[in-house]
Amino acid sequence: MAIDDAVMDWLLDSDPALRWQVERDLLGAPEDQWRSTRARVASEGFGAALLARQDPDGQWAGGSYFPAGFFTSPEREQPGQPWVATTWSLKDLREWGVDPSELGDTAARIAANSRWDYDDLPYWGGEVDVCINSFTLASGAWLGADVSQLVTWFAEHQLADGGWNCEAEEGDSVRSSFHSTLNALRGMLAYEKHTGDASLREVRHRGEEYLLERRLLYRASTGERVGDFVGQFISPSRWRYSALAALDYFREASIHDGREPDPRLADAIALVRAARQEDGRWLQGGHLDGRVWFDVDVTPGAPSRWLTLIGTRVLDWWDASGADAR
Questions:
Q1: Cα–Cα–Cα angle for 168, 174, 179, nearest 5°?
Q2: Among 253, 264, 229, residue whose Cα is nearest residue 243
Q3: Looking at residue 198, which CATH number applies to its domain?
């Protein structure tokens, strides 16, 4: 998909965490160029700012998933949740492309000092929530931590319909969730890419089939749209599902696995294409309430560099495959 020079310049005039992905995924820049830009993430902009907020014990905000003292503070009564604790900070640094060597012995310090809010369990062993375990699996693989307990956890907790649901462990649901399933898939793919261990690939492919059978958008029971959230594109999306977030996963997975795009993605592609503005940008569709260390994207309704990067690379991947013509 051709992109306007002004839009490309706008995308390149950005934090290194975003710019290196524009260079790699949209410009097709030489590897040494985008890697050089990616190496700056730890010393400039978002990445440097977040690294500077790490606690001496290896955590962020003194907690694993929630900040220290959250459950007895007035913040608990506010909308949303804070996005500043260890799990969210590691997720951001990893997805921004920070080299794990920049974090030194963080994995060991977290192992020694961080416990889950649920049952005081050790950090790298995970807990009962599939989304939390997905983030932990990916970040542990990135940092070289021992996440072997979590590798077996995903196969053991895959539901009969092929996906996962954060509420299943409480006995509240036997049906999978779009949100939980996408997070599980992202975690398993990141694990495989960071470690080279493909032992979860079959489990991952079965989870992909759960979303593909529903064409990323629809209820299996009625064929109706599963919810408005599928068409609301937000950045950062954190744990939240959307057609755009799912397509970005399927793009990455198909490239990694060496597979062509599945034709069942076509409806979701059309939804993403329809959201593209005439100038080639995508607008911020909302935000998730809660405290952040600092803003990394624009307010709702404004053109978003992050969403424009993701939307453009998804459509480029789809269009280059000739999937619409098959």
A1: 65
A2: 229
A3: 1.50.10
